[in-house]
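Quick one: co-fold with WT7.
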Amino acid sequence: MTENHETIDALSHENRRFPPSADFSLSAHVSDGGLHDEAAADLEAFWARQASELISWQQPWSKVLEWDLPYAKWFVDGKLNVAENCLDRHVKAGFGDKVAIYWEGEPGDTRTITYAELLAEVEQFSNVLKNLGVTKGDRVNIYLPMVPEAAVAMLACARIGAPHSVVFGGFSSQSLIDRINDAEAKVLITADGGYRRGEVFPLKPAADEAVAQTPSIEHVVVVERGGNEVDMVEGRDHWYHDLMAAADASCPPEAMDSEDLLFLLYTSGTTGKPKGIMHTTGGYLTHVAYTHRNVFDLHRDRDVYWCTADVGWITGHSYIVYGPLANGATQVMYEGVPNHPGNDRFWEIVEKYKVTIFYTAPTAIRTFMKWGADEPAKHDLSSLRLLGTVGEPINPEAWMWYHEHIGGGRCPIVDTWWQTETGGIMISPLPGYTTTKPGSATFALPGVDIAVVDDGGNEVDGGGGYLTLTRPWPGMLRGIWGDPQRFVETYWSRFDGSYFAGDGARLDDDGYLWLLGRVDDVMNVSGHRISTTEVESALVSHPSVAEAAVVGANDPTTGQAIFAYVTLRGGHDVDVATLRDHVAAEIGAIAKPKAIFFTPDLPKTRSGKIMRRLLRDVAEGRNLGDTTTLADASVVDELQRRASEAPSED
Ligand code: WT7
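Sure, here it is.
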């Protein structure tokens, strides 16, 4: 650590190691350091090889990269169509009868869709969009549950060159209004409703409220799924199945420029108006196909892949729709929640479809820990050969639980770090090559360059600091829709010449990378800068704790004091003093929480991230600010009640 500049103190230690088994490495796409060497020798040549081997181009590029900081163009002058890459070429190569999607509805209804069937549906829906007046460059908004039509709609947009903007079905009409108006979308694709926790949740009424305030929307297409009653406005609203029945079957793919906009995806960040993150065509597809193939070691002839994300998030875009389909994968797509009808629904699905690769979020894993190991034990999970996580730092204990109870001790785990803005995975183990450590995302992938720096931008050779990306990568965001100024300020102004991701990270003595959470969440206790992630991991390493959220609350003596909110594992009990001592023993007395509150649940966003801002408000006794992005608002009422009753300890 450099002396004059502030960094983040690194407190935790983890000595367990998991090398890949000889058996796994034997058939893995990557089992040595060759890719790393190749990328280090010539970054552009490396990505050019990926682009030509993994993607089909209608016209070759004239230049691999044009880099005018912070603006990148990849595969300049290249022409391709993303839907053609995801569908047509597989069908032409003889894989038309291969299953693309095993779809499982929450009530238990199913659909099996082959590549040929998916292509036919996409071509026909492309014609539906054209008939509604959508042309190349027009934006289309998608607000759907997890039904196959979500993928069909996205691919049809890609086929005709109309950028899509998908809004997660759990968002309110107000979120939809803001996003439609910012993108000035012409058509909205929604559903009557979808299934969630055994009930139909209506979407069309929220869409109706939105469309009353979104002048750019000319037509609304409604997929029938929930069977709930909806109002249809004559001339404006149309049933998906009616339009499909009237549309032509064939629609040739549009030749798109490599740098044409493929989609916008809005991310709210910590404050202010959501940002429309722009992703383009050739570089993005190359990045997601490359990472999906190598990080998940996808063998399309034998793998059944399942990513549990919603298509409304970037994970759904990159690792349900574009990456897996570009690689010709067979995948499971599931509509509902993990606990309907029982807490073992996911494991039932893994057993039923013989899933081999399973990708989920740490928040889900900690919930499974809460529910107990008996749930996965009810099912035969022996088909699994690789596990993945994304979205947050994974605590070593959650990693170990996942490894043991889901992976049967035999599956490598890939902890994948990336962001909506990066488009695809940036930091992750390569499962046939990398020796993992529980809780570490390990190393930057071949083709990705990172640096952990201190406050002054100097690279640290060990310890904590800020995670920056030092060279352009193909899947990188190309801007914020309509706000170039904000693009520069948000990502490119903190450290000269680098992209700053907003995350803290630590390099250990072996050069392994440990993500420390958002730097806005770093606490300052008596002048020590402590990462919330490390204290949370220390708490979760106690056998009774399933999940913990830690925040710094203002404190007259120490600047900030550590407040912890803790959820226990099913059937466990432990007292506050024991947990405080446990943290002190794990990472040091400085990190001992001042107060610990037990709670059955933590406040989370709908994508599963803990809302520490709200917990700080609770800890500091403030009125709560905006709670609209909360997945379950009742959690906070309960926390406030407990906070006002429980005394804090010293
Ligand atoms: C932020 C990006 C990337 C798809 C889902 C989230 C956190 C993501 C990890 C990981 C530690 C992680 C970071 C990042 N994050 N993956 N493996 N370890 N933190 O996308 O909503 O754009 O959020 O998620 O803080 O900056 P997103």
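If it helps, Residues 267, 314-315, 390-393, 415-420, 441, 501-503, 515, 518, 607 surround WT7 (CB under 6 Å).
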